[in-house]
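ok so i was messing around last nite and threw this chain in just to see what happens. nothing serious, just curious
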Amino acid sequence: MDNRLWEILVDSFPKLLKYGIEVTIPLTAVSFLLALLISVIVAMIQYANVRVLRQICRFYIWIIRGTPLLVQLYLVFYGLPSVGILLDAYPAAVLVFGFNEGAYMAETMRGALESVSTGQVEAGYCVGMNYLQIMVHVVLPQAFRTAFPALSNSLISMLKGTSMAATITVMEMFRQAQVINGRVYESLGLYSEVALIYLAFCTILTGLQHLGEKKLASYGGTIK
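result:
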């Protein structure tokens, strides 16, 4: 490695890491929370089997899972202004990432809800609980425990996927690498550096996932 490249990498690393911590991670966290909220609502609607609402949820999942994330980003950020809906790049990215991942996570949550024994639901009614109380106190806690590994994988996938926000001008870590590369023309070194930072972030999340699974397993049984 020549001195020039080494100096560029040393100089760029703290800048890239700064954008990773201050933009990429918060973007991931906010988008994931939105996706989790959407997934729980959609899964509960399907679990309740309200026909019209269930069909609306299935339509949403069909549309989102059947179209590329990049196309969704472009439709929201570049397409909606043509009908008078203007969104800044960051909230547009949050909405698209949230609704996109929410469709996949909804299927995870639906399967987790359906894995809970119907006998426990019936027992809840027998002790005087209403439907919402049964969902909150009986079904959802068990469903989240079952879905934890898959939801954790969705979080890791979303962290990597946030790099696509660069295509709609969000100044996150990958976009910052593109800006730096536009000045120094060291694509291999800079993008390798970005890849290593993403790898470090994902490794930390994977470690936290394993700790979470062990903690949940300690309450009895195994994580499916």
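not much to say yet. Residues 152 and 166 are 24 Å apart (CA to CA).
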